[in-house]
């Protein structure tokens, strides 16, 4: 049999604006989903930074290292 790999995520990112619950997680956005302007950066500066959308309130966020570190939560078993 071939090499079998399973991609299991052990963490997720929460929305800083929503009350914590199962629906207020951040999902990575595709470029076509995001048409907004960030004052903090030029187009060239923000190309490589992942962008996230809250599943509940639909707010957009830039996934900087600091932001992701603050919003990261572990998935608990059980």
Question: Briefly, what is this?
Answer:
Helices cover 9% and strands 21% of the residues. The protein has 78 residues and is mainly beta.
Top keywords for this entry?
5 strands; 1 helix; two-stranded antiparallel ribbon; 3-stranded antiparallel sheet; mainly beta; 78 residues
Would you spell out the secondary-structure blueprint of this structure?
Layout: E1 11-13, E2 26-28, E3 51-54, E4 60-62, H1 65-71, E5 72-74
Antiparallel strand pairs: 1-5, 2-3, 3-4
Q: Count the E strands.
A: 5
Radius of gyration: 15 Å
What is the H/E string? EEEEHE
> For the largest beta sheet, what order do the strands appear in spatially?
2-3-4
Tell me which oligomeric state these chains represent: single chain
As for the number of domains, it is 1
Q: Give the low-confidence spans.
A: none
Shape from CA axes? globular
**Alpha-beta classification:** mainly beta
Largest sheet: 3 strands, antiparallel
Task: Give your account of this protein's structure.
It contains 1 helix and 5 strands, in the order E-E-E-E-H-E. With 78 residues, it is mainly β. The strands form 2 sheets. The chain has a 3-stranded antiparallel beta sheet with strand order 2-3-4, with no helix packed on it. The protein has a two-stranded antiparallel sheet with strand order 1-5. A hairpin with a 5-residue loop joins strand 3 and strand 4. The model has no long low-confidence stretch (mean pLDDT 77).
């Amino acid at each position: 049999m071939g090499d079998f790999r399973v991609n299991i995520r052990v963490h997720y990112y929460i929305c800083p604006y929503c009350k914590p619950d199962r629906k207020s997680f951040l999902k990575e956005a595709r470029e076509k989903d995001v048409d907004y302007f960030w004052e903090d950066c030029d187009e060239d500066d923000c190309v490589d930074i992942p962008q996230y959308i809250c599943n509940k309130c639909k707010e957009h966020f830039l996934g900087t290292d600091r932001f992701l570190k603050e919003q990261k939560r572990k998935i608990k078993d059980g």
